Amino acid sequence: MKAVAAALAACSLLLAVSVVLAQSPNSGKPPAAAAPKYDPSIYAELQKAPEKARLRANPLQNDPDAVAAGAILFEQHCAECHGASARGGQKGPSLRAAEVQAATPGAIFWVLTNGVVRKGMPVWSKLPEPRRWQLVSYIKSLGELASVAGYPAPKP
Amino acid sequence: MTSFLRLALLGFFLVFAFSVFRTPPALAQENPYIVAYDHYLEEPGNLEIEYFSTVGTQRGGNNFHAFWAEFEYGATAWWTTEFYLDGQTTFNDSTLFTGFRWENRFRPLQREHFINPVIYVEYENKNGADKILKEVEGHDVESDFLVSNAQARKDHIHEIELKLILSSTFKGWNFTENTLAAKNLSNSPWEFGYALGASRPLALKASAKRCTLCPQNLVAGLEMYGGLGDRHSFGLHDTSHYLAPALAWNLPSGWTLRISPGFGLNDNSHQFLMRWGVSREITGFGSVARRFFGGHK
Fold this sequence. Notes:
The structure holds two protein chains of two kinds.
Chain A: H1 2-22, H2 44-47, H3 51-54, H4 66-77, H5 79-82, H6 98-101, H7 105-114, H8 129-142
Chain B: H1 3-22, E1 47-56, E2 64-76, E3 79-90, E4 95-106, E5 116-127, H2 149-152, E6 156-170, E7 173-184, E8 191-201, E9 218-230, E10 241-250, E11 255-264, E12 272-282, H3 285-292
Antiparallel strand pairs in B: 1-2, 1-12, 2-3, 3-4, 4-5, 5-6, 6-7, 7-8, 8-9, 9-10, 10-11, 11-12
């Protein structure tokens, strides 16, 4: 019985912490003025895409709904780390940096599929392939942002 | 039941209810499996709180309702850790807490492959009245549950369970194969089991409009699981096996509902298991926890 009580108490404590922390103003919102650390090496993952993957064309490139659908998917799955406007967050880099916007759709799709597991980005192959392409359409539609809070302007 | 336990239970439910309604939603993309595992781990820093029920028929005895709560945390992109609390009600007998489990899943490979392995390691501290059937192993059969709760709970089980999860995703389909080896830390032989699963979302493309009850949010699948005997008598004799269609509904509000009727495939199996579950993902739990404890921002 002591073990039961201890286990339940531990769970209550765990949940209590989650509740208190979930009330934090930043919870679930993109960090506004927080300056995420810029790690240029994170973008090197895009260069690791094999040539065959890099050259893949987006099959939904001409789909008029792809960007709108991708925007909803981004909000549901990506904004938590990359920020609501994809300018970067506490955990994920800006997707509006030149490195991303200049990458081929195939390279972005490859990173989405494989993740960057050692650096904290999970694999997203659990999203069916068309949804990953819809995300790529949305990310490419955002365009480059010269200087993002906390991020240096991309090198020419 | 002690007053401390009552207080802890009350606190647990209050905190659970409060947390799930006050935290920001994140659409989970869960497969419908209840027994089988795929290779997708919890997103780093997220906490998923889950509740599952299994109602089972029992020939020659009383039907039962087993239930468990899961707290699944994404420690890193390659490591998910999970804590379980189990209990059961046997009709015309009693209700009791049956134990806890601590599970860890590790993803050894960095990238996606045609087959993706995940290593699963679990410690179980439970009593003999455990009926959640989260896995079927060794010579687990229906008649094991004929023992009364008062008698069964006297048996204490400390068990290590290892699984090799091999999972593939191809054209929207997920196929997974889990091989299980479990060892009661008392002087018992290794026991073996398996679980197979296949699933697919009802629509592969996402809609350009927000929707709740639409095919893209529903994932249908099929599970099959059972025992494979033990080290001294490996094979299918005196083992039980189940086939279970499963459906998951991933709601935009962050909730996931699962339902899975299971059917026994031989005379050693329960004839029918009705399983269902509800879960909710709490995003960013890890980062706010670090802030709360004064860690780096």
